[in-house]
Design goal:
With 271 residues, the chain is an alpha/beta fold. The protein has helices at 35-41, 67-81, 93-104, 123-139, 142-154, 157-162, 164-176, 182-193, 224-230, 246-249, 251-270; strands spanning 3-5, 9-15, 19-24, 45-50, 86-91, 109-115, 208-213, 234-239. It has one domain (3-119, 197-270): Alpha/Beta hydrolase fold, catalytic domain (Rossmann fold, 3-Layer(aba) Sandwich), CATH 3.40.50.1820. Helix 2 packs across helix 3 (93-104) and helix 4 (123-139) packs antiparallel against helix 8.
Amino acid sequence: MPKMKAKFTMNYDQQGSGQPLILIPYLGADHACYAFQVAEFGKRFTCISIDLRGTGESDSPEGAYSTETLADDVVDFMEALGIESAHMFGLSLGGAVGMWIAAKYPDKVRSLSIHDTWTKSDLFVRTLVKGWQGTAKALGNVADAVVSGIFPWCFTPELYAAKPEYIEALSQFVHSRPVQSVESFVRQCNAVMEHDIEGQLGKIVAPTQITYGEYDLVTSGRFAEPMRREIRNSELFVFEGCAHAPIYEKVEEFNRKALEFLQGRAASRAA
């Protein structure tokens, strides 16, 4: 895997050709979390999937994490790699980071794709994520905490019932990735619990796609309409029969809808 030295060393994967598309991972994941998307997106875009600080094979600098700091990291990475601007894509934490990039560095963002994300952590989000921290600490293993504590919030009961072998395959995939330390996971969780970009949404000028799973309880539709209203050039789509991770529950439909948006914005940019 290539690595780029900015303020610290960030690991990334690059595939495909076309306009640059930066894929920002969600909580507890590395760049490979978007494997089902890159396989399709790479036919039309240069997909640059990154490991955020403290995940995958990126360095783990000291200090607290915040979604704004993680956004600064991505922009530092872009500058070190010589990327003037790119399409931004992220699920959950990745979407939160993407919003900060779009609000703080508008010239860096060609379009913004944010999926199952949120604007400000409320009591429900903080309570849920605090529990995930406790699970990781108790188990001493982030992958085990993800599979036992986070997976049930990401997928519908129907998926567990209909495709247990698929859930098992995803579990094995999580355990196959580079180990994230419990300390880094806890700091990522802190960034999630402290996330607040409500006052910055009006600064986002990039064309924006907002999507949610119909049954997402983590970052549910309670955030959707306010986000669509405040981000002036945005569109909203809901994936039926999905929870927090439509990228895994309805891969083909998700990829098709996401690519429709991305290709439309890429064409506008080229023109």
